[in-house]
Amino acid sequence: MIPSFQELMKPFLEYLKDEKVHTIGEAEEYLAKHFDVADEERHQLLPSGKQAIFRNRVGWARTYLYKAGLLNVPQRASIVITQRGLEVLKENPEKIDIKYLMKFPEFVEFHKSHNAEEKIERKESPEGDISPDEIIAQKIEEINNILKSELLEKILKSSPQFFERLVLDLVVKMGYGGSFEDVSQLLGKGGDEGVDGLIKEDVLGLDNVYLQAKRWGKGIVGRPEIQGFVGALHGKGAKKGIFITTSTFSKEAIEYAEDLKDMNVVLIDKDKLLNYMLKYHIGVEVKDTIEIKKIDEDYFEEF
Question: What architecture (CATH level 2) is domain 5-112?
């Protein structure tokens, strides 16, 4: 029987106790032997047919341990235990699962984004049965939230120039400015007079839209920043602007933007940014496509 990804967590961490850097493949081999997973079981595939169930579960165990700060990923496909992970092994809990990981603030914050505690309660409670369609939707949401967390991490590690290019890619994919070549020379000026860039509202260039991009890892964008942006727009005689940040906006900043009478300023915080990146395929690619079928009622109509 293939163990669940939660059952894999403690043995996974124990495998790393030598404090050496290992590959995810090495961990998979160890866990397969530890749980006596037969070759036939190791080759069982997910419904998509593109990945083995066991490998998929090993990957999820690694992700959850990483989000709790118990292991680190120094480079692609490699893993190493952290000091926190060593302390957990010394504590020697009976098991390491999602409920146990909730003791770590980073994991709690990670799970809050998609109401994980509530989902766990529903799954473990007999009264909490939900339909297969809901399960699928929840799992897609869970996968996407993990993906968004990793996207944000990569953005914050990138250079300011890369973030400007990302913003440019996004607005072009959203239909502004025509092609990348049409607007690529309009960014990268380093905050010219209070703005970071200029795009055309449509392919015909009927109106200008100014951009402000803040790649902040900490802090909240407040009203003063939005006022400064609005002042820059006034200085250029502009009526439209987009303020994009990897952070969040304060309540006062949001209310100020909403109350503007003579111009339209759209605020895009990190959640909206990451959602747009997924929607318009910026920095992500399709891994699997799952078809959900229903009865074709017309087919069964008899004439």
Answer: Orthogonal Bundle (1.10)
